[in-house]
């Protein structure tokens, strides 16, 4: 008679289960919560620990599937098989979060291996989304790459349990990728769309169909709409999105706007009804005079309600040169952050802007390392643009290199009025 296997116990359960008595003694909800932090494959493997663990993995509230190997058909088949089986055996158990990241090809690939295989992948992805929707998830995040003909199921846009939706389809030249005829997401609060083409009727249908939407983020999308209307949206972010016309914003509840791009002039936004707007972030990395239009000037002139303003990078420097001559008085502005370029070379821009911020309380200057000290000296001799900020209490200077910081402080101090001489000046290095 053969001796019992050293890896098993008398009741044929793995010895591993007896090595974790404290863990197994925890309440089932706690064990399920622990499983939710594990990779799906690892979570499924816990079924061999004991009878208690056999079906716990089917109750995990979060599923996070990720596949990004390119060109390995056998590995792709294994991924498809695993996801399909896990969703099947899991059934309709309550699901909080469903994340699927499937990179089946490169961004420049025409199709996934072949048109036939690509169609199969699209069919699999759609069926998985349907399976997840049956479980009434609160959060869905989809990230696809290499699917040139992917169309999202309409059921995704009528899921009443959704509170957060993220879509990154890496296919912004296919206008049919996202085109719901009807949107009904009554509980959606956060929406993030990336690498898509958004046309006028689609964008407005989304905003109308999300009555509780508070946060909207658009990243690397092609914008083909001319209006954005929402009575509930509070935070709007647009990053690297080329536009094909001026988009007018009618959002009375909007609190913050974040604009970030490699080139200015591509986000053509016009604020028409934003009385609640208090925080604005603008960053343009590069610039050229022909990028600017009257839209950018009008946008800046609409910031009279703003209390927090952040202006970064060299593109903003060029924009300010065009705006400042007709800049309105920003009576409500309390905090201004300015820089990420060589401030000393264009310090007059800052001083001129401060002439339009009489109630400013804190000024933060982000300073880059100077490359031409002689140029700084010249500005010290000619840059006399006094400003009066009677409420100014603190100036913070952030720098990557201390060179030129003393010159910057000297010019700021010399241009302030007597009342601001007592402001606190702090320094921090980044």
TrEMBL record:
InterPro entries reported in the protein's UniProt record: F-box-like_dom_sf, F-box_AtFBL13-like, F-box_dom, F-box_SCFL_complex_component, LRR_dom_sf, LRR_FXL15/At3g58940/PEG3-like
Pfam family, one: LRR_At5g56370
SMART domains, alphabetized: FBOX
Domain F-box: 20-70
Signal peptide as annotated in the record: none
Protein's name according to its UniProt entry: F-box/RNI-like superfamily protein
Lineage: Eukaryota, Viridiplantae, Streptophyta, Embryophyta, Tracheophyta
